[in-house]
Design a protein that fits this description.
Keywords: Cell outer membrane, Membrane, Receptor, TonB box, Transmembrane, Transmembrane beta strand, Transport
Number of helices: 7
Domain TonB-dependent receptor-like beta-barrel: 243-720
Strand content: over 45%
Mean pLDDT: 89
Radius of gyration: 27 Å
Largest sheet: 22 strands, antiparallel, barrel
Pfam family, one: Plug
Family: Belongs to the TonB-dependent receptor family.
Helix content: under 10%
CATH architecture: Beta Barrel
Domain TonB-dependent receptor plug: 39-151
């Protein structure tokens, strides 16, 4: 919980409805207790109202961010609409445990990232209640620890801001059905109430990829002459299936061979890949205005969550059998591979599959207090926050059998066996001070500092050793920021800033940080020696041009340098790995945005360039590959170029729109060095082969017909030309040649690494109705 998160909420909640490229018009709406507005912020700020979600222009919040916000990208690694892996300036906000997170998500001032692994549960956000979205860039320390690349700040509606009954119902491809509804009421004496719900159900466009979720949000409060308070409750449940990557090409000694992706990109590699999520968040907020220049804000929250997963995978012993016995057997039953130690008669007794399950239980509580005041030319804020979280994470495995459709069923003769786990806790104390100093009417200097004290405690458990002694790690850091804005007479504002923030290691990273006790990611936790916290420093220069309400543009140049970044490295003499600090990584680029309105027409354009590279030497472990890091090597999965264009025409009750997104190719994970396989000891690397994803461009169409002031209809077609594309690539072993399980006991198997792809969503249709009564 931080002041700036709360401040951004206030800005976004009271700003006019704007699109993703608009400047945030809040000159007449200062942050409570201050005279700061968004035009004085020394970095590029993007904002959108709930109209962007409610007008049928996006599938959900993460889709809105990808379509409308400059610098935001995403991939479909999980294949589920609510389990996206988003990046902003190369930093991630992901639902995947083990992913290195760098973007914070705030809901009404409460940090929504989970205590365990800092993951973001996009499926648990109350989208029917969200009134505004604001994206803040950089490593601003006022957003608290772990905010290395930026923050997504969400505010919810109330009975004061959204009275009456509102709703939206839609149906679409893949048997998709969705309902959003809300009702708000406000009394003459200041009392207000609000309730919102979302229901979602689909079969999905890929095989065995159905999903459903539901969220309920309620808020009650009272607005007084000097004091406002509100109490809100959020509860959500989901059952989502995301079936991940598909093998596209296998690289064998005989040459490349097509994989499952080529035959049927709607298929799945193995199944199930099920995630059940449940979350409850209770928060209370209090604002008291002592006078026109001084205000106090207090916030307290409690959050509970549980997440259970079931993953059908290839059995580890069987995968090793396929690799070591690929040449098959002679007629007398003897193995043709010297490394093969499995007799042909024993091969059919090996379990071909495994059901890996996880259980995660989390509890978090926190309080925040900040005082804001206007003192002459200074807008001052001081405050403190305290957050604590507890988590219990357990991993189990059960032997099973791969079926002809590549699903995995459990062997009834075996039991689920505990594999590893962790009981962890975190306590974070933060104290901050910020000042915006008006040097004159056109020049503002902003400065801030936040001191964090983070305590992480872990008790690791393994099947062999049971509970290990508790480990305790303490991280303390003071992080500053400094910025300057200057408004010129030509409707141009120039700005520049430098900011620093830090991230303490997560329980997963600490639980697999010993090179002498490596693990497989993310299925094992072995030992937890100390890791250093990541330090990120961001520099940004830019300009805003706003000659009128119908024309505006923004240009921003930034660089973010990470020190002691945490990567998954290869352990000596093994194919296992461990987390460790490396020297540096760098994310630098350019963001540009333009928005024009003229009569019935509206045009928008946004472009981002990102150069993300490693800046140190090392050995990165990615699947079975070991990549030799060197300064200048590109980081995988991040496109260099991202272009977003939009055009809208409105005449009377009819609105038509078209959107285009063009994304350049991505480096494949495990192919950063241009190799698809590890060179044998003493041999030179093979000829370079880059197997990343190809660039693509997608076009979307939308239409809206306003029947009357209360009812409107909308329709949308995504990926109009049904473009085949992929959003992620990785190198891994494919044990399903031609879609069939490899069986060396029957015939020799052509083994080799394969390129796996995350298939992009094909053409999709959606129609719906929206009402406001």
């Amino acid at each position: 919980m931080t002041l700036l998160a709360r401040s951004a909420l206030a800005v976004a909640a009271e700003a006019p409805q704007v699109t993703w490229l608009d400047r945030i018009e809040v000159t007449a709406t200062p942050i409570p207790g201050t005279t700061i507005d968004a035009a004085q912020l020394p970095y590029m700020v993007q904002s959108a109202s709930n109209a962007e979600l409610s007008r049928g222009r996006s599938n959900n919040l993460s889709d809105l961010l990808q379509r409308r916000f400059v610098g935001v990208d995403g991939n479909d690694v999980q294949g589920s609409a609510f389990q996206n892996d988003l990046t902003f300036h190369g930093f991630r906000a992901s639902a995947l445990p083990g992913a290195s997170q760098g973007v914070s998500v705030y809901l009404d001032g409460v940090r929504f990232n989970e205590p365990f692994a800092d993951i973001v549960s996009w499926d648990m956000l109350p989208e029917a209640a969200i009134s505004a979205v604001t994206l803040m860039p950089g490593s601003n320390p006022l957003f608290g620890p772990n905010t290395l690349g930026g923050a997504v700040v969400l505010s919810t509606a109330s009975g004061l801001t959204a009275p009456g009954l509102q709703g939206e119902a839609s149906i679409g491809s893949g048997a998709r059905k969705r309902l959003d509804a809300s009702y708000g009421i406000a009394g003459a004496d200041g009392w207000h109430g609000f309730v919102a719900l979302t229901g979602f159900d689909e079969n999905g466009w890929r095989a065995a990829s159905e999903g459903r979720l539901g969220t309920v949000f309620g808020k009650v409060g009272k607005q007084g002459e000097h004091t406002d308070w509100s109490l809100s409750l959020l509860h959500g449940r989901s059952r989502l299936i995301g079936n991940g990557l598909l093998p596209d090409t296998r690289y064998t000694d005989e040459g490349p061979e097509p994989g499952l992706y080529r035959a049927d990109r709607r298929s799945v590699y193995t199944s199930p890949d099920l995630t059940r999520n449940r979350n409850t968040l209770l928060s209370v907020q209090l604002d008291h205005r002592f006078d026109a220049d001084t205000a106090l804000h207090a916030l307290a929250y409690s959050k509970m969550g549980r997440r259970d997963t079931v993953n059908g995978d290839i059995g580890q012993d069987y995968e090793e059998f396929v690799e070591e016995c690929a040449s098959g057997y002679a007629t007398d039953g003897s193995a043709l591979d010297a490394d093969c130690d499995v007799a042909r008669t024993d091969a059919d007794t090996l379990h071909t599959g495994a059901l890996n399950t996880t259980q995660m239980r989390q509890h978090a509580q926190g309080i925040a207090l900040n005082l804001s005041m206007q003192w002459g030319a200074h807008a001052l804020t001081a405050g403190a926050t305290f957050d604590r979280g507890h988590v219990r994470y357990r991993q189990f495995a059960r032997d099973g059998w791969v079926q002809p459709d590549r699903s995995v069923i459990a062997d009834p003769a075996t039991d689920r066996a505990f594999f590893s786990g962790v009981r962890g806790s975190t306590q974070t104390l933060g104290v901050f001070l910020a000042d915006t100093w008006a040097l004159d009417d056109a020049t503002h200097l902003t400065a801030a500092v936040r001191w964090n004290h983070v305590v992480v405690g872990n008790v690791l458990s393994t099947a062999d050793d049971g509970d290990r002694p508790r480990e305790r790690f303490v991280y303390a850091k003071a992080n500053p920021s400094l910025g300057l804005t200057r408004r010129l007479a030509s409707a141009v504002t120039l700005y520049g800033s430098v900011a620093q923030n830090s991230r303490a290691p997560t329980a997963i990273e600490l639980g697999c940080a010993d090179p002498t006790q490596p693990c497989r990611l993310p299925t094992g936790l072995q030992a937890d020696p100390r890791l250093e916290q990541i330090i990120s420093r961001t520099y940004e220069l830019g300009a805003r041009w706003t000659p009128s309400a119908n024309r505006n543009a923004t240009l921003s140049v930034y660089r973010a340098d990470n020190r002691d970044d945490i990567l998954f490295l290869r352990a000596p003499d093994t194919q296992l790995g461990y987390f460790d600090n490396v020297g540096r990584t760098r994310y630098q680029g350019v963001d540009a945005a333009l928005h024009l309105r003229s009569g019935d027409w509206q045009w928008s354009a946004g472009y981002s360039y990102l150069d993300a590279t490693y800046r140190s030497d090392g050995q990165l472990l990615s699947g079975e590959r070991v990549i030799a890091l060197r300064p200048g090597l590109r980081i995988a999965a991040l496109p260099r170029h991202n272009l977003k264009l939009g055009m809208e025409w409105q005449r009377d009750a009819l609105t038509l729109g078209v959107g285009v997104r063009a994304v350049s190719g991505r480096v494949a994970s495990g192919n950063e060095d241009g190799q698809v396989d590890n060179a044998e000891e003493g041999q030179a690397a093979s000829e370079r082969l880059d197997i990343g994803t190809a660039g693509y461009a997608l076009a979307d169409l939308q239409a809206r017909w306003t029947i009357n002031a209360r009812v409107s209809l909308f329709a949308r077609i995504d990926n109009v030309f049904d473009r085949r594309y992929a959003t992620y690539a990785a190198v891994a072993e494919d044990v399903f040649p031609d879609g069939e399980l490899a069986r060396p006991q029957d015939a020799p198997v052509e083994t080799g690494p394969a390129r796996f792809l995350a298939p992009g969503v094909p053409r999709q249709y959606l129609i719906g109705v929206r009402w406001a009564l």
